[in-house]
Structures are given as structure tokens and as C-alpha cells.
# Entry
Amino acid sequence: MQISVVIPLLNEKESLVELYDWIAKVMRSNSFSYEIIFIDDGSTDDSWKTIESLVKKDNQVKGIRFNRNYGKSQALHAGFLKAEGDVVITMDADLQDNPEEIPELYEIVTTQGFDLVSGWKKKRYDNVLTKNLPSKLFNAAARKTSGVKLHDFNCGLKAYRKAVIKNIDVYGEMHRYIPVLAKNAGFYKITEKEVQHQARKYGNTKFGINRFIYGFLDLISIWFLSKFGRRPMHLFGALGVLMFMIGFLAAGWIGFSKLYKLYHGMPNTLVAENPWFYISLAVMIMGTQFFLAGFLGELILRSKREKERYLIRKTTSNI
# Structure
């Protein structure tokens, strides 16, 4: 099979038939072998009934239904597990992504050798203050933090080689950072393509301003995991040793100062009455805790090492 189209959705019954007809028309006109996978993320309207009717109409259509709303990342993960195409295309169900882009996205992956092609909605029809401006700030922070040079991380229209989606885990709200997850998994051939953005035709957007708050928190998480996820001792151990040494030296200085003043008959106070003594003690305790956190992290990683999956790109043999 050449192409799998994975479409997560929530309460999009008005657009599903039109979207299916559009995708099927593009696929048939280009003679692609394909499948369309709809993932109903706990819709409360008649989206699932529409999907069932499409499945009965066309055996190329598959449906997955969640018993409640789990989020776009979980929906994509379920679709990726089900996908069988050599190239996997993701798009939103609200008709804002144009299926006419599919042939060129497929061509870029198959003939130019890219692992991932991300859509870039350069011209958008969203509200400037509530979506466009925050999106630009978010994308700038994501580029700076991850090192992946994309203009639009959150664009739903993307194309992947099958190996990419089978070797990454999309969870939480990490669907925004699939290009970063792919890079961390060893897929470095990532590019973008300018795509057409269309105004929403039916219903209302499912995203509020809170998605940018969660997005930045997830960005911090993925930055930490990419930098120190496999070597927590490098961060927590180093920080713990540094804090312990600072606290230890400060406590030593307080003790030396006390002895010096006693020896020369100078006025002095009890060490226990010096607030800096308790500050240095607290820093030493915190340093010890950081060090233990790094040590425990290393033990957990070592216990899971034997279960870890490795991606082998090529093997050679003279046999």
C-alpha cells in the first residue's frame, strides 16, 4: 500500500463526507493504493455514525472510536499503529487542510528521500491576536529550543515515511512536536512544504489559548528529555555536587570564622544563631537530594535498557 491517511477528529460530522469524497477523488485520479483511517476522539455528535457509513461504502476506509476524549496525540498514536502505507499522511478533519497537497507530499518523501515533510501554512485565515501571533511566538521558541528549523510545528498536514511513525511514541500533548520526536529517534531528514490553508467551513475550533500554555510546558519537557532523558546524572548529579560543595564551603567558612573570633577574643555569636548556617545546611541537603535523583534515574534507565528498542537503518553481511 502506498499511502495511509490518518485523520483524528472530534465532533466534525458536517465535514467528514466532503473530506472523504475529496481525498478519494485525489487518490483515484493519481492511481494511489491507499487507506483512510478516521479516529473518533470521543465525539458527542454523529461523527461515528458517519464514519460507519463511509466504512460500509468503501473498504479503503477504517474507523477507530475512543470511548471518551483522550486528545489528539492519543488519536494519532492509535492511527499510527493501524497504518500500513509506505507513506503516512496526517491531516485535520475540519477541511482546513487541502487533500490536493497529498501527491506532492508523497513525491517529496518517496523521491527526495525525506523522512518527514511538515506543512507550512504561510498564509492563514485565523484570528491574528488569538491564533496567528501566539502561534508565531510558539514556533519561534520551538525552533530555538529543538534545533528543528520549521515555520509551523503545529500544522496538521504532514507526511512521514512508515518507519518514522512506527518508531516514535506520541503521548500527552506531544503531537505538536512530532518533528522533534522524529529527530530524537534518529530521523534527521526533515523538511517543510508551503501548503494552502483554508478557512473553517463547519463548526468551531476545538483549541483555546490554553493550548499555547500547555504547548510551552510540553516544549520544556521534550527539551529536557532530548538533552538529559538518557543521562539524568549529567544534570541532577552535577547540580547536586555543585550545590553540596557550595553549602559545605559556606558552612566551613562559618565554622572557621567562629574559631578565628574565639581564638582572638573577638565578639561572636553562636553558630546556631547565624541564619547563613541554616541556608548552607539547606543547600547541602538539596544538593544531596539532586544527586540521589540523578542516581535513581540512572538505575531506572539501566533496568529498562534490556527492553529498549533500537532502530537499525542498514545491515551488511558477506554471507
Observations:
- The CA atoms of residues 11 and 43 lie 5 Å apart.
- The mean pLDDT is 84.
